[in-house]
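Pilot study result, target chain (106 residues):
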Amino acid sequence: MMADNFEFMKCALLVLVLGLMGCERKSCLTNLRQMEAAKNCCWALEQNKTTNDTPKWEDLRPYFKDPTPFVCPNGGAYTLGRVGELPICSIKNDTDKFREIYSKEH
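Predicted structure:
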C-alpha cells in the first residue's frame, strides 16, 4: 500500500512539473507526455483502473492546471487509448517521436 502511495505521489509530481513546463502547450510531445502521466500514473492508480479501462478527457481534467482539452499545435487529433497504452497523435511523426523518447526514458 505504501508503495502505491509513493508511485501516485511520484506521478502526481510528474504531471505537475510537466504542466508547469508546458503551460502554453506549444509542443505535441509535451501534450502527449502530460496525457500519458495523467492517464497511467494518476487516474489509473487513483481509480484502480485496469488495462481494460479507457478514460475520457473529463476523467483526466482534474490532473491539469488548464482543464481545456489539448490541441495539437501541428493540427493533429489526440487519442487517449486504454490504460497501459501510450496516447497517440494523428500526426504519425509526432507519435513516433513520442514513442522513441518514452522508450528511452522507461
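One observation from the pilot: Confidence is low (pLDDT under 50) at residues 20-25. A full batch analysis is planned for the follow-on phase.
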